[in-house]
Design goal:
Length: about 200
């Protein structure tokens, strides 16, 4: 040790001299806190300085000072402030990584294109909506639509089965598709593929 631990402000007071340590604290605390405030907000600066004094109190017997006591104290505060700034930056980076991961996870979890369960639920809902929309068609219109899109009959075949003209079949199909597109508007991107006009 280049400087022995003894009472006074040129060295750290011994741990068993509480009065000397209180005076030591009162002497340096305001200046060290003002210095820490150059790097951090006041509350964090005060915490840094208080933590330093606690560390000095608990470890006074083991601290070696190779410069002046004042230089040691200011350098300690400076180093602790830098460490906290680095920790905050690291924490912010980690938080950003976690935030991005959660956004990606949420996107995968709820995107029908990447999640089988959601896709299944979506397809079940789509199927039910299509069935309800088809059931709501006028009877003749529904029969023509079912024969065309469900049973894959050609217009000429439907015309013979239902004993109506081909133009009537075409009109029914056109009207059915128009009604279905209106009723299934929320599934428009799928309906346009399933039932093109």
């Amino acid at each position: 040790m280049s400087e022995q631990i003894k009472i006074g402000f040129t060295s750290i007071p011994p741990q068993d001299d509480k009065i000397a340590f209180d005076n030591f604290f009162k002497h340096f605390y305001p200046r060290l806190t003002a210095y820490a405030c150059l790097f951090l907000e006041s509350e964090a600066a005060e915490d840094i300085v208080q933590d330093l004094f606690v560390y000095i109190w608990e470890n006074s017997k083991f601290i070696s000072i190779h410069t002046s006591l004042e230089a040691y104290l200011f350098k300690s505060v400076y180093q602790r402030c830098l460490n906290q700034i680095k920790q905050r930056k690291t924490r912010n980076i980690h938080l950003k990584i976690i935030e991005n991961y959660l956004l990606e996870f949420e996107s995968q979890l709820f995107d029908p294109d990447t999640n089988d369960s959601i896709r299944k639920l979506y397809m079940e809902e789509l199927k039910e909506d299509i069935n309800n929309a088809i059931d709501s068609l006028p009877e003749k219109c529904r029969k023509v639509f079912m024969l065309s899109y469900i049973h894959n009959l050609k217009n000429k075949e439907i015309s013979k089965v239902l004993d109506i003209s081909q133009s009537t079949v075409e009109n029914h199909i056109y009207n059915a598709l128009k009604i279905l597109r209106q009723k299934l508007a929320k599934h428009s991107h799928i309906i346009a593929i399933l039932f093109p006009l």
